[in-house]
Amino acid sequence: MLTTKISGLELKNPLMLAAGIMGTTGGSLKRMARCGAGAVITKSIGIEPKPGHPNPTMVKLRCGYLNAMGLPNPSYKLFQPEIDEAKHAGVPVIASIFGVDASEFSVIAGAINADAFELNVSCPHAEGYGAEIGTDPALVEGITKAVKNATDAPVWVKLTPNVADITETGLAAQKGGADAVVAINTLRGMAIDIESGHPILGNRFGGLSGHGIKPVAVKCVHDLYSALDIPVIGCGGISGWEDVVEFIMAGARAVQIGSAVGDNINIFSDISSCLEAFLSLKLWTLDDIYGMVHEI
Ligand code: RRO
Fold it and tell me: Which helix (H) or strand (E) covers residue 10, if one does?
């Protein structure tokens, strides 16, 4: 009843593990799949190994988490065995990848074997990467086009909310041939230690995730659904089944869950059960509620 098809991938439910959480090893990805995720996305992988930003790289706030991990990863050259191991769990494994330009993105996409690629053009705190290129529609279109030429796998583009109008970059991804867009990555933010006056994060600022950003993400999904012809995948602040219903009503074909996994490792199976119960009580299917708010 919860089965979902997105860019040719069959998902047993529309709930995916978001990039950046439990996504660095095949073992942790497999564990999240076995905990009920319909698909899993890896931590973002780049061309060379990266140690990431200095500590502290993550802080829990009242409204969510602020992180500036800084794209730590072992490089694509070492990552294929992790993807292959994750695949043993039997759900689609999507590789999140990043680069400085179209050429770096396409080298990685051409070398890695994954069920789909998610292009990270939206990390809010990495010089030369992520949102620094993902706020320019021409670059988003060019990178998407280059990756589409480098692989036969579906290509998703993860968008930044740190723009005036997310449909401009969404439309650019679509023009470049993207099979879906993912909205949203984290919102740029900062926290200060009032005892010392120092910024808390080693990188001074970072990206906000968690429940506080959900209304921002829902609005982005809503706008992208109206403007685009390709599917939108919702991400940002989901911690319960009601949030998933809201995202789907806004126009998300599927959703990703990240921060909330830290509080409940079984969140995927918990939400699946409640979502199924809600839909059967209302005599609705996922298709019935997909984009429902746009009919009103
Ligand atoms: O690694 C990070 O610091 C990071 C990434 Br790649 C991202 O896409 N979003 C985010 O909040 N942090």
Answer: strand 9-11
- Which residue in the list 35, 63, 123, 274 is annotated as catalytic? 123
* Domain harbouring 235, CATH code: 3.20.20.70
Q: CB count, 10 Å around CB of 110?
A: 13
DSSP assignment, residue 292?
A: G
71 lines ligand 1 (CB under 6 A): yes
Q: How far is the CA of 113 from the centre of ligand 1 (A)?
A: 22
For residue 16, which of 70, 72, 96, 78 has the smallest C-alpha distance?
A: 96
Residue 248 structural domain:
4-52+66-187+208-295
Global confidence as pTM:
0.98
Q: How many domains does the chain have?
A: 1
Atom in ligand 1 nearest the alpha carbon of residue 120: 8
Q: How do residues 233-272 score in pLDDT, each as one tens digit?
A: 999 999 999 999 999 999 999 999 999 999 999 999 999 9
Catalytic residue at 220?
no
pLDDT at 172: 98
